[in-house]
User: Fold this.
Amino acid sequence: MANVYELMPEIMGEEQIFVASIIKNFDDQKAQQFANVYRTRRRDPQTILLLTLVGFLGIAGIQRFITDRMGLGILYLLTGGICMIGTIIDLINYKKIAFEYNQKQAMEIAAMIRAV
Assistant:
């Protein structure tokens, strides 16, 4: 059983607990494969925060595009972040947005690795 902190020291808190629960039954090789793929697909909450702040400069919705929420991204882009209210809400919830995206990616990667 691989240690999540050793494989991915960049993840913390709730995300680390979630990833640990996913890879607890993986052998070391599968855990390393998971870590390599997950590291390339995950979104850092700080990146989401910075891209949300860019929304105040007139390019709202980028944070939604990189988290595969194309519909919301287009809506935010065309409406100025729904008159900045949506952008402010995303600014408050940036960690949740990143965690939900990362959670989805982790589950997809785990399913892919189990299938191999």
Notes: The chain has a mean pLDDT of 94.
